[in-house]
Amino acid sequence: MMKRIAVTGAGGFVGKRFVEYNESRFEIIPFSLREKNISEINLSGIEAIVHLAGKAHQMEPIADKIYFDVNYELTKRFAEKAKQQGVGHFIYISSTKVYGDEVHETLDENSPCNPNDAYGASKLKAEEFLLSVQSEKFKTAIIRPPLVYGPGVKGNMIKLLQLASKKIPLPLGNTRNARSMVFIDNLIELINTVIEQKAAGVFIAGDREPIATDKLILIMRKYLGVNSGLLSVPFTLRKLVKKIKPALYVRLFGSFVVNNGNTNRSLNFVPPYTIEHGLEQMVKWYRKTHLS
User: Of the candidates 271, 276, 14, which has an alpha carbon nearest to the alpha carbon of residue 152?
Assistant: First the structure.
């Protein structure tokens, strides 16, 4: 008998892939919290919930209340309903945004959380609630992914792919940084492991190792068939970029490393896919959908 898993946000980037990837592994029941009132939801027979629905981080300003209404209040009410109806396991997909952006050391599950925007704060508040209501009969798991990439990706990764596809030298050589990311299938395998072990607590998703921006673009260009190289930017010019465009500087030259070693050891888990494989799959999708 396959486990019956309810999945919210099944139409999103991660949700779609979770359903597709696990079609023969679990009996998956998609739930739309937009279309149904939580009081009308029937969760009887559901063994675990993977809660992916939420208000994603936006670069454009939106009201803080929207983040808290969706990421915290909706999660709170849904979890209360799940506990009341006898669901045994609630898996919440949070974000490393709970740590904030200005981080200069390697992070892990026990690092202090200092979110610097409403998105991160709303995710953290939902985490705290879920951990406060867990019990032997209602286990809660928090998974914090860094940047998720793969076929179907949106946002900044698409912009980076567009940049990498230009047949010109780019001033992004020798970045000397390190950024944690997670290939979507590695994230899903981690979620599956948490489900199958009925694990509780806080877990960090990630690939086997972080990657520098210059290496990331070179791998993208390899699969894009772009031969143009990268130029090193003088340190003084980087400082100017940092002063004028601090957010851009952080995305291109900053480091953000989360250590998923504790998570992997506690679950006896190894991310099965390499960064190179994940980037190859993403670039193949991008070439088919954006360049053909």
Answer: 14
Enumerate residues 6+ apart whose C-beta is below 8 A from 268.
none
What SS3 string covers the chain?
CCCEEEEECCCCHHHHHHHHHCCCCCEEEEECCCCCCHHHCCCCCCCEEEECCCCCCCCCCCCHHHHHHHHHHHHHHHHHHHHHCCCCEEEEECCHHHHCCCCCCCECCCCCCCCCCHHHHHHHHHHHHHHHHCCCCCEEEEEECCEEECCCCCCHHHHHHHHHCCCCCEEEECCCCCECEEEHHHHHHHHHHHHHHCCCEEEECCCCCCECHHHHHHHHHHHHCCCCCEEECCHHHHHHHHHHCHHHHHHHHCCECECCHHHHHHHCCCCCCCHHHHHHHHHHHHHHHHHC
Which amino acid type is present at position 111? S
d(CA 100, CA 117): 8
Distance CA 79, CA 5 (A): 14
pLDDT band at 59 (very low <50, low <70, confident <90, very high): low
Dig out the tokens for 223 from the structure: 């699969």
The Cα–Cα gap between 63 and 74 comes to 16
Is the pLDDT at 228 greater than 90, yes or no? no
Q: How far is the C-alpha of 31 from the C-alpha of 41, rounded, in Å?
A: 9
Q: What is the mean pLDDT of residues 167-188?
A: 94
Which amino acid type is present at position 8?
T
CB atoms within 10 A of CB 44: 8
Q: What is the C-alpha to C-alpha distance for residues 269 and 272, in angstroms, rounded to an integer?
A: 9
Is the separation of the CB atoms in 6 and 47 below 8 Å?
Answer: no
Q: Is the pLDDT at 175 greater than 80, yes or no?
A: yes
